[in-house]
Amino acid sequence: MLFRCLTSLAVCAMLDVPQAAVAQASGAYPSRPITLVVPYPPGGAADQFARSLGHALGERLGQSVVVENRPGANGNIGSAYVARRQAADGYTLLLGSASTLTINPNLYADIGYDPVKDLQPITLTHQMPNVLVVSSKTPYKRVADVVRAAKANPGHIAFGSAGYGNTMHLAGVLFQRQAGIKLVHVPYKGGAPALMDVLAGTIPMMFNNLPALVPLKDSDKVRLLAVADTKRSPVLPKVPTFAEEGLPGVVSVVWNGILVRRGTPQAIVDRLNWEMGSILKSPAFRQPLEAQGYEVLSSTPGEFEALIKKDLANMHKLTKEAGMKIN
User: What are the transmembrane regions (predicted)?
Assistant: First the structure.
């Protein structure tokens, strides 16, 4: 199923190594501030999670962790910056996602980096389902209303996304395929500006990450029609799944994780994995984020790398079947 990260893989044991031994093996690291690159604009769900994680990591490491947004080309610009232009020393981290690590390599002729050869996984951090949100200025109150209108006006109703090939876009592609409808895709440079236009009624709808929509659950400007997951979200208990709305094949759950440039010393990789794993397992860190709609995860570097390779193959099949390619 699209972008689904199996819980049995994602929620897993950290390295069974004493903390003191990991810290000693990594020497004086870190001796200066660390940069966490988010390859998307500020304000989105991924950016918000990164800022929470960066703050907690800085406290554990005793050095500031500065979040730096480098958006563009559906996340390729920021990802290539870390993968090819920064030293393999653990001082530049990357927030990677299903989009930048498994979808983009299958869409673009050249993304500027190889997600397997150039990047070293540290840990999975979280996942979140996409949700169909419509402007309250539209007449759509159920998924069936959208489907009915789209069938009556094929190729005339628009939906926004964070960019061509983004998981929000592919969720829309999957929705169209399962419902037998044709919509018009309007790509934006990030999910936040697309959502602003849905709120304003400039575009009728979009798929967006659940945490970006939780603050709007009681808004009179939008309606949340369905969650693209196999189960309802505990933070949106009144919003049905697509299966409940008659479209069981619409499942779009997006995973994210932290990586560094390949070649970073193993001791630093182990240190970062240990420290982040401790944060991600902490109830004090998890609970506020889970209340916002994030499903907090953790993993070993090897498990994260196995997921990337597996989903690279899955996305190759999906994008080829959909005829999607960017030169």
Answer: none
